[in-house]
Design goal:
- The chain has 465 residues and is of the alpha/beta class.
- It has 3 domains: 116 residues, Probable tRNA modification gtpase trme, domain 1 (Gyrase A, domain 2, 2-Layer Sandwich); 125 residues, tRNA modification GTPase MnmE domain 2 (Four Helix Bundle (Hemerythrin (Met), subunit A), Up-down Bundle), CATH 1.20.120; 167 residues, 3-Layer(aba) Sandwich (Rossmann fold), CATH 3.40.50.
- It contains 16 helices and 13 strands.
- Strand 1 and strand 2 form a beta hairpin.
- The longest helix is centred in the middle third of the chain and has 25 residues.
């Protein structure tokens, strides 16, 4: 276990007012620090037992608290750790923290508690990153993915691949150091026989990257359509609140309104946009330009049309221009006041276009009554989760860009090693590619990684974690 020379402290609960707030202290002098501020001090504190008392700065009574001591290594950091449970106001917590710091601790850096857990072997780096993902989880799918990674699901899978590669490297070293054993051909055959299984497993893991990105960041979603088709009403219906102004006057929405929401366990970063039409109003023109920018940036477009009017030639052209490299759903709004099929338009040319062009899914909805929204949410889930990657906690999912890059490098190096073996390249040269694979997978776990990268990763954490 790595011994740190200083004792750190920080507020471990979120900013704001609450019933209870926590100040966390960790390090060799944690007992000494609490002994100088906590009364009555019990002397020999028993690990994992709660003690009632008061925090004092000299003779100044700060707060009435409960204190829990966790003796090394049975704590999150694997160090002696104290947690002070006080009243949840930020001022009183700050006073408790200041008192602790004045008596021998120093303020923890962002993520330093988790960093110490990593350095002391409590967690590997992938598990440590899962702590941050769990804290930032916005959906049940994100929470489950983080918990699985924290529990070692991803780590066990990568360790299995690394152990395989290490055994290959050991055989290669043996054949190089002891050529009289004549095992070179057999070693090459063994590696080729096992390499495909390892590559396939890593590739399956890499295929979860898109789902992981959605779980972590959300799907950028633009609500697009002509004026007065119900775009803002749809946003309000999805959010279950009157967030956007709704009025019968065309052109009410002049800017892009962005909100975060979860539908069918898919997090959406949803944008309500200005209606698309020809206009001479300079302000509305700017709003329409922003609509096009939002649509280009979006990963999902909800194209809203008026079911009482049907799709027009203008609608078809807009949908066609947006749908080249986008996920798009056509929503025929106001279906509660029409029984038409929604494909009416302005003449036979439109109907012919509809017959010859493949349209995205067309869903009748009523933003006013909520009709059809569940079907919409189901389509969104199918688009991005597709039912082939479980989000119930049973599947390892790559959620971080760092992992994606290193996994891609590992796959490339391993494919190079396989190709080199097929081409009969000497195994001592093949071992260079295998070792590069081994190192890349180790960097995900934090086994092969520089201090500067570790510092940068933990700097993303909140203070107190």
């Amino acid at each position: 276990m790595i011994k740190n020379s200083d004792t750190i402290a920080a507020i471990a609960t979120a900013p704001g007012v609450g019933a209870v707030g926590i100040v966390r202290v960790s390090g060799d002098d944690a007992i000494g620090v609490i002994g100088r501020v906590f009364r009555p001090f019990p002397g020999d504190m028993i690990s994992h037992k709660m003690y009632y008392g008061k925090i004092f700065r000299d003779d100044d009574f700060i707060d009435e608290v409960m204190v829990c001591y966790m003796k090394s290594p049975r704590s999150f950091t694997c160090e002696d750790c104290i947690e002070i449970y006080g009243h949840g106001g930020m001022f009183v917590l700050s006073e408790v923290l200041s008192t602790v710091i004045e008596n021998g601790a120093r303020l923890a850096e962002p993520g330093e508690f988790t960093k110490r857990a990593f350095l002391n072997g409590r967690l590997n780096l992938a598990q440590a990153e899962a702590v941050a993902d769990l804290i930032g989880a916005k959906t049940a799918a994100a929470r489950r993915a983080a918990l699985r990674q924290l529990g070692g699901g991803l780590s066990h899978r990568l360790k299995f691949s690394r152990d395989k590669i290490l055994s290959w490297l050991a055989h290669i070293e043996l054949s190089i150091d002891y050529p009289e054993h004549e095992e070179e051909a057999r070693n090459a055959s063994e590696i080729l026989g096992e390499a495909d299984a390892v590559i396939n497993d890593l590739q399956k893991l890499a295929e979860t990257v898109n789902v992981g990105k959605i779980i972590r960041e959300g799907v950028r979603t633009a609500i697009v359509g002509r004026p007065n088709v119900g775009k803002s009403t749809l946003l309000n219906a999805i959010l279950h609140e009157n967030r956007a102004i709704v009025h019968e006057t065309a052109g009410t929405t002049r800017d892009v309104l962005t909100e975060e929401v979860r539908v069918a366990d898919v997090p959406l970063v949803i944008m309500d946009t200005a209606g698309l039409r020809e206009t001479n109003d300079p302000i509305e023109k700017i709003g329409i330009e922003k609509t096009h920018e939002a649509a280009l940036d979006a990963e999902l477009i909800l194209y809203v049309a008026d079911a009482t009017e049907g799709l027009t030639a203008e609608d078809f052209n807009t949908i066609k221009s947006f749908s080249k490299n986008k996920n798009i759903l056509i929503l025929m709004n106001k279906s509660d006041i029409t029984s038409g099929h929604g494909i009416q338009g302005d003449g036979s040319s439109v109907l012919e276009l509809h017959e010859t062009e493949e349209l995205p899914p067309c869903i009748p909805i009523s933003a006013k009554t909520g009709e059809g929204l569940e079907e919409l949410f189901s389509h969104i889930r199918d688009l991005f989760f597709a039912g082939n990657i479980g989000t119930g906690g049973e599947t390892d999912i790559i959620t971080r860009e760092r992992h994606r890059i290193l996994l891609a490098q590992a796959i490339t190096h391993l494919q190079n090693a396989k190709r080199e073996l097929h081409e009969g390249i000497p195994e001592d040269l093949v071992s260079v590619s295998l070792r590069a694979t081994y190192i890349a997978l180790g960097e995900i776990l934090g086994v092969e990684i520089g201090d500067d990268i570790v510092d940068r990763i933990f700097a993303e954490f909140c203070v107190g974690k």
